[in-house]
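Example record

One chain of 167 residues, shown exactly as stored in the release files.
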Amino acid sequence: MNRKVLLLIFVVFIAIVLKTTVLSDFAFKGIKPDIILIMIIIISNFSGSYTGEIVGFSTGILEDLLSMSPLGFNAFINTFIGYLSGITVGKIFLHPLIITVFQVIIGTLIKSLLTFLLLLIFVNGKADSVYTLSFIFELLFNIIITPVIFFLLKTLKLLPLTTNSRF
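Predicted structure tokens for this chain:
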């Protein structure tokens, strides 16, 4: 395994630990940005749907193990979003950050919808509404933090030099 892959695994693991522990203390009224979702979207946007699925599944399983989620809950959602984000590689020719922010918006919407559907299926039809004020704040947090994570991964040289961009 090369050094770049090991560093990426380490950064993703740190992000999972931060999300499940430290960010919970700094949440605004229980709302925090989903840095794992953002990282999955960025990585799959550069590497394709197969890598997006692998990263999504592995981060989801780790997230399930470190949180109180049922095993496979986050794995399913992250795998699905990783796949969808990866299918745009080579098909949309805009700046990678613009594509990523757009995909984070769509990914956050899909994550909330899938969460609602899974809760509806597995909790005997008892699920709260998906798109509430807290959802809007999470979406805004995700949009604001996306460029920070994007440039952090670029600075650490964890993203390939060639992208699906003409720039």
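Notes: Helices lie at 3-25, 35-47, 49-66, 73-86, 96-122, 133-155.
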